[in-house]
């Protein structure tokens, strides 16, 4: 049996549940993953319990457990809200997991977990104010100040994707409908689906984000136009974050953060829109890739050892 303090992080996704055991220095000691039984709430609980117990059995140590999940616990009802894994909504997920595991469980939005991971030992390490961005199926974000997550009164801090696209132009207004009920949200312009839609409008061809990026690298003019339009919208949206939060570092995550061309001249574009003479905020790709969320879930317990 090891005497090393460990923390277990669980990333509850729509298609998979991943769990890791993390050492105090950030080393991943063990990892497990299973498919998400997305239509069965009780099966999701059982899957998480099994993963945690398997990791503890392998390492011979009882651990503190943090969980990253789409959506958040409502500060008003104590129940899950805004999750695209619909069976979680309206459920006391944190309390049910605490009962099932017979210990306290810390639960946070998956974008918050990503931001925390990159702030602790990723692209934002050492910075005081870190804003983590998810550019993927949806557009999310998380805010970390002095190493601590900022949730906000309504537990929606960092949800920049559901503000309107700033400085919207005539051919962009009023924007497409968003699932949240409004039109023209940043998410409708910067999600993976939005990039695909933009290329379809320009070329008449349906393609994936990866394929569009590859076409741009090969010099395809319509793919280059598509990514340039995306980058300009990203710059406008990030400038609004800079104007409100003024972070030291913005870290990009999610599948679209792997498009290298997005970073070329991006800080200069943000500087053009932000309310400052010189932009000192750094915009960086993430360090931990797909492991950011699950690492951040484990770091929810970074303030204490795993003697639980």
Low-confidence stretches: none
Total domain units: 2
Structural class of the secondary structure composition?
alpha/beta
Mean pLDDT: 94
Q: Please list the strands of the largest sheet in the order they lie side by side.
A: 3-2-1-4-7
> Roughly what percent helix?
25-40%
Which term fits the overall shape? globular
Beta-strand share of residues: 15-25%
Can you give a write-up of this model?
With 308 residues, the protein is α/β, with parallel strands linked by helices. The chain folds into 2 domains: 6-109, ATPase, nucleotide binding domain (Nucleotidyltransferase, domain 5, 2-Layer Sandwich), CATH 3.30.420; 123-286, 2-Layer Sandwich (Nucleotidyltransferase, domain 5), CATH 3.30.420. The chain is built from 9 helices and 12 strands. Strands 3-2-1-4-7 form a 5-stranded mixed beta sheet. A 5-stranded mixed beta sheet has the order 10-9-8-11-12. A hairpin with a 2-residue loop joins strand 9 (139-145) and strand 10 (148-149). Helix 1 (41-59) crosses helix 2 (93-101) and helix 3 (110-121) crosses helix 9 (292-299). It is globular.
Summarize the helices and strands and which ones pair or pack.
Elements: E1 6-12, E2 16-23, E3 28-35, H1 41-59, E4 64-69, E5 72-73, E6 80-81, H2 93-101, E7 105-109, H3 110-121, E8 129-135, E9 139-145, E10 148-149, H4 186-190, H5 192-203, H6 209-217, H7 221-245, E11 249-253, H8 266-273, E12 282-285, H9 292-299
Parallel strand pairs: 1-4, 4-7, 8-11, 11-12
Antiparallel strand pairs: 1-2, 2-3, 5-6, 8-9, 9-10
Helix pairs in contact: 1-2, 3-9, 5-7, 6-7, 7-8
